[in-house]
Amino acid sequence: MTRSERALDFFHQGYNCAQSVLAAFADDLGLTEPAALKLSSGFGAGIGRMRGICGAFSALTMVAGFARGNTTPSLDEKESIFSLIRALAGEFEQEHGSLVCRNLLHLDEHAQEPARPQERTAAYYASRPCEACIAFCAARGEQILRQAPY
């Protein structure tokens, strides 16, 4: 099973976008599945369902950081991971139109949503681009891990 398939399986079980991506990589990151789910739980729906940066992309950032992140305060190492994240963000935006959950879902800029998530139904899945965003982030994470010197 590919990481994208694993991530989509988690999403269809009801986990948020960030949890779905990060949990698909739990074994690669040296995490238990419950630890990956807990660690990423607050990043879903644009961090805390506030519709900011896409949760799937946030999880991809964590995977990329694990694979290629800095372990010293070296400016060169910091620049390297920041450059990678910027490149991934550019690819994500080109593919999906925005990094921002609110924009991806075409929600009103000023509308406040409650913290309680919506029930998962066929209409829920059909009305949003989350599956495509999750699959994209998991596939990019898989590519990064294959190339990683960690």
Give your account of this protein's structure.
This protein has 150 residues and is mainly alpha-helical. The protein has one domain (3-147). Helix content is 60%, strand content 0%. It contains 8 helices and no strands. It has helices spanning 3-13, 17-24, 33-40, 55-68, 75-96, 101-104, 122-126, 130-147. It is globular and about 45 Å long. The relative contact order is 0.19. The model has no long low-confidence stretch (mean pLDDT 96).
Distance from first to last alpha carbon: 23 Å
Strand content range:
under 5%
Number of domains: 1
* Contiguous uncertain segments of 5+ residues: none
Taking the sheet with the most strands, its summary is: none
Sequence-ordered SSE layout with sheet pairings:
Blueprint: H1 3-13, H2 17-24, H3 33-40, H4 55-68, H5 75-96, H6 101-104, H7 122-126, H8 130-147
Briefly characterize the structure:
This protein is an all-alpha fold and 150 residues long. The chain has helices at residues 3-13, 17-24, 33-40, 55-68, 75-96, 101-104, 122-126, 130-147.
Summarize this structure as a short list of keywords or feature phrases.
about 150 residues
